[in-house]
Amino acid sequence: MVGGYEKASAADPATEQVQRRRATELRWSRRQALICCSISAYASAGLLLLTGCARQSPAGKSSAVLPGATTPAGHTPTQAEAVLSMTTWETPMNGGRIYQRQADAFHQEYPDIKINVQSFPTNYPTKIQTMIAGNVAPDLFGVNVEYFAKFAQDGVLLTLDSSIDADHRFDVADFYPAVFDYFRYGAHQYGIPKAWNPDPVLYYNKALFDAARLSYPTERWTWNDLLSAAQHLTERPSSGPVRQFGFARTTDWEVCASLIWMNGGKFFSADGHHCLLDQPAAQEALQWSANLSTKWRVAPSVAELTDNSQGHLFASGKVAMMTGIRGTIKQLRSVRSFGWDVTLFPQGTAGRAYALLSSCFSISAHSRYAAQAWQFLAYLNRPSTQVAVAALGGGMPTRQSVAKGTAWRQPDLPPANEAAYVDAGQHLRALPILPAMQAVSDLFNQQTTYLWRGEKSATTVTAALVPRINQLLTGTTNPG
């Protein structure tokens, strides 16, 4: 399926170090944008950033059954006011402020519970881990998948099973199973998903397709159709910079996993104990992605993306198609110079598969207000709240009844084909939740840089990468 690759000259050490650092920054910016979009979506629904210190209780504490979980609005307080803390990575003036508004609305309904919201828009992982280490963890906080399993393994997170079972208004069956189960570790639920994104979907510039007299991408497209259109849409003069790229894609491990699955390969074994990137189907998918820039030259190279992310190139009309998530529309809705839309990413030889991107809210295992924290967490997952969440243009609603409805859609704003995100939800796959997830992700992204620069083939890169990933997996897999 994949042809050969072109070997580029190796960069000097100083240039190589700069490129690696910038590539890492771009990957973190994309991850942070995803998180912020998910939280922005939840922002209108009201995520809380809690800053108060909670009295520590024994690690591994089981979930508390909520007193008054079905108490009607305006109930009479039966105890002194509980003041909770919650943290998020959204900016204080954007999502943080909206979260606090939601917290205030909750307080009107439950006067004996007050929630303080605090935002950490920069260095959130470091700050939340510092709070946890100092025994001042917030009662409720957002958790990224890279740290979720480690937190669960270390007894940082409260198990939510009892609270879920006792709250008859919390309909687990209405959640997307793959999304809800993503935040189980072993036999227990430790988080409630905030929002989700299928990765990747395909964004395209209608004006550039019209100018080239090409039909717009459809759900019937294959990878070959994508490549053919990208070749027609690329404008690369004999000298000087490229005027227009046909396609741009991210090289994060989630996007790579999707391509590998669609080509019939696997990233990990079924039990999560072994990395399978050195198998032919996985190597072919990775090499195909690399060839887009190193061989066919229809996509920006690592160097060409150093100063301009693919989103900025697309928004400026210099890229005809690109990969993205639903959160991407928050940036694109400011574009007025051309029309654009979204569709499913083209299917591979093995069909469709889209990596699940999500994060969750968890309750501290040491919170003395666990029951109240659950009440607010359940409040944020009401269908009416999720409608407001999705309307912001971030992640998708986690409840199927909301996602498959129309109340959250905004027909007066692009994209016209928002059904593509719902359709992609039928083909979600999740990378395993591992305590070593962040380390595996970092290692993959670092080592595949040689592939994206055209310095090494996928066969060479994966042969060296797999043993190192397997070392990280040893003894760190999900016990469930």
List keywords for this structure.
globular; alpha/beta; three-stranded antiparallel beta sheet; 12% strand; D-Maltodextrin-Binding Protein, domain 2; 40% helix; 480 residues; disordered N terminus
What does this structure look like?
The structure is a single chain. With 480 residues, the protein is of the alpha/beta class. It is 40% helix and 12% strand. It has 19 helices and eleven strands. The chain has helices at 13-45, 92-109, 124-133, 145-153, 161-166, 177-180, 206-211, 223-233, 253-262, 280-294, 310-315, 329-332, 370-380, 383-391, 400-403, 419-424, 437-447, 449-452, 458-473, and strands at 82-88, 113-119, 140-144, 184-185, 188-189, 192-199, 201-205, 321-324, 340-344, 354-363, 428-429. The strands form three sheets. Strands 1, 2, 3, 6, 10 and 11 form a six-stranded mixed beta sheet that branches. The radius of gyration is 23 Å and the shape is globular. Mean pLDDT is 83; it is low at 1-78.
At a glance:
By secondary structure, the protein is an alpha/beta fold.
Largest sheet: 6 strands, mixed
Give helix and strand order, one letter per element, not per position: HEHEHEHHHEEEEHHHHHEHEEHHHHEHHH
Q: What's the helix count?
A: 19
The percent range for helix content is 40-55%
CATH topology (level 3) name of the largest domain: D-Maltodextrin-Binding Protein, domain 2
For the record, the CATH class of the largest domain is Alpha Beta
Low-pLDDT stretches? 1-78
CATH superfamily of the largest domain: Periplasmic binding protein-like II
| Structural class by secondary-structure content | alpha/beta
What general outline do the C-alpha atoms trace?
A: globular
Question: What's the architecture of the largest domain, going by CATH?
Answer: 3-Layer(aba) Sandwich
Cα-based radius of gyration, to the nearest Å: 23 Å
User: How many domains, as an integer?
Assistant: 2
Q: What average pLDDT do the residues reach?
A: 83
Distance between the termini: 36 Å
Strand content: 5-15%
Number of strands: 11
